[in-house]
Design goal:
InterPro entries: DnaJ_domain. By secondary structure, the chain is mainly α. The chain is built from 9 helices and no strands.
């Protein structure tokens, strides 16, 4: 490593140490994570600049810190996954057990029209063409042949069948 790089790294570490010491005791844990993230980011950036890291790895390293903010944005484009994500956030461990028990009991129960409309992201009174179009868009994203989930694809298919029969 270049001596200037070592000096710069030492300055960053010392500055981080003094900043961490200045934080109130109840905020030091959060400050520690910020320092760790900063050091990892600087290390990955240094590897990318010196050509020791592939550009794809550098891109992944760049996206990781923003993933928490990007995930809800990505989920907005998939109504079914967004619904699942919201249910997971709302449910505690006890609620999840009750939900699984309910799913096992009602495995043979039919999907309601409201659930089918929600899965396909449609409003009541949607035409046959709208149903087919919404189904095609979702199934292209969720099909198991495209590394999607078989369960999600089955739910989308069941929603389409339910709406086309009614």
């Amino acid at each position: 490593m270049h001596p200037l790089g070592l000096v710069l790294f030492a300055v960053i570490v010392l500055g981080s140490w003094y900043w961490w010491q200045a934080q109130p005791l109840d905020q030091r844990r959060s400050a520690s994570w910020k320092i760790i993230l900063l050091l990892v980011t600087i290390g990955l950036l240094a590897l990318a600049i010196t050509g020791r890291m592939h550009w794809l790895g550098a891109l992944i390293a760049l996206v990781l810190p923003f993933l928490k903010k990007l995930l809800p944005l990505l989920l907005r484009f998939s109504p079914l996954l967004a619904r699942w994500w919201q249910n997971q956030k709302r449910q505690g461990p006890r609620d999840k057990q009750q939900h699984q028990q309910h799913r096992q009991r009602s495995n043979n129960a039919r999907m309601t029209e409201a659930e089918a409309l929600d899965i396909l992201g449609l409003k009541a009174g949607a035409s046959r063409e709208e149903i087919i179009h919404a189904h095609r868009q979702l199934i292209q994203k969720l099909h198991p042949d495209r590394q999607g989930s078989a369960w999600l694809a089955a739910q989308v298919n069941e929603a389409r069948d339910r709406l086309l029969k009614s």
